[in-house]
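User: Structure please.
Assistant: Input sequence and predicted structure:
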Amino acid sequence: MAGGKIFTKSNILEYSLLVGGCAIFSLGAVLLVEPYGFAPGGTYGISMVFHHLWGWRTEVSALCMDIPLLIIGTLILGGRFGFKTLLCTLLVPVFFWIIHQTYGFDSLIEPEVSQKIAAEGLTGVAAIQQYDHQLLAAIFGGVLYGVGLGMIFRSRATSGGSDIISMIVNKYMHISLGTCVIIVDGLITLSTVVAFGDWKLPMYSWLIIIIESLIIDKVIEGQASKTMMIISSKPEQIRKIIIDDMGRGATLIPAQGMYRGEPKDIIYVTLTRREVVNLRYRIAEIDPDAFINVLNSAETIGLGFKSIKD
């Protein structure tokens, strides 16, 4: 806590992100992922398999795995998880329970199907096969997963669960953490084939994981930005557009052309996508022969973009 203060603006924002992220993740899981028998990694993925096989409550099964994993992870890896990860571990099952108690176990897209399942007494793969909109559920389930987990990660917490297993494997087997996460989540996803004998389920689960990863990057990195490197015979006019008209900063890098050995100046500037399009058209008006290289910036920190404090 900064300066010993608890109720600072940054702390309130971080814990709001954490609580909101847990709620959104839980909504996506209960309303779009759980009814269809998907298992997109993590302890909640394997718990959803248990739910369809034996009727166990997903949140109870996951909590029974998460708490021991958190204790084991703390003993093996040290106190690197912190209070926020513990809070996340407890909040998600609470939100699961609230949604189950208030809404039930129905799919948001096909709420009427659960009545048929209950009437015919179907369980396991027979119940899952009654649904028709798996693809739609997987796509929007992945979006809600990504938004929720992205908010949790932005609050500087981790989701715990199978991530802890990946960290332990990484420590003792010296396999990269990213590879460990893929292996662990991949095995959990493939468990649906063993449980239900349906290869479509892990395919939908992998789709959720891909969409989730893309959305997490967007939530963590914020607005996408582009870096432009411009070589022009009219750098002063371009400078005025960037500085005076667009209110952005730029860097002028002295360089030398390799073909003729002539001195050149490279203008280095980072802009939003919208600003890049505007500047490109402005440059075309004043110097049609300019050379422009536009690069994707994974993350931009500094004045005019995301604060380095965040």
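The two ends are 14 Å apart (CA to CA).
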